[in-house]
Amino acid sequence: MSVKELEKLIGQVIEIIYEDKSGNITQRRVEVHGIKGGLLRATCLTTGGPRVFRTANILAWRQAKARYAG
After folding, report:
1. Alpha-carbon gap, residue 40 to 53, rounded angstroms
2. What is the largest CA-CA distance in the chain?
3. Is residue 1 scored above 80 in pLDDT?
4. Pairing of strands 25-36, 58-63
5. What is the pTM of this model?
6. Is CB count within 10 Å lower at the N or C end of the chain?
7. Which domains does the chain have, with CATH numbers?
8. Is the C-alpha dihedral spanning 45, 19, 59, 27 positive or negative?
9. Cβ–Cβ contacts within 10 Å for residue 19, how many?
10. pLDDT digits over 21-63, tens only?
């Protein structure tokens, strides 16, 4: 995933497959706030908390589909 691809997603919600430093693989839904120095700043919509992800550890991503209440 290129930095230019991610920069276009600032302010958007995406779903990522991420491998953490322990080798655990998780799927997360995040709102992208910024990217700098190989780090993606986001809010994890699962936990509601701020997170920082290493872009090199993002295995896959896609733009999240809208979820409608009702």
Report:
1. 5
2. 40
3. no
4. unpaired
5. 0.81
6. C
7. 3-63 (2.30.30)
8. negative
9. 15
10. 999 999 999 999 999 999 999 999 988 999 999 999 999 999 8
d(CA 67, CA 22): 31
Which sign does the torsion angle of CA 57, 5, 8, 67 carry? negative
Q: What is the dihedral of CA 4, 34, 16, 39, to 10 degrees?
A: 90
Structure tokens at 62: 């896609």
How many CB atoms are closer than 10 A to CB 35? Answer: 19
Cα 59 to Cα 22: distance, rounded to the nearest angstrom: 15
Query: Is the pLDDT reported for residue 69 higher than 70?
Result: no
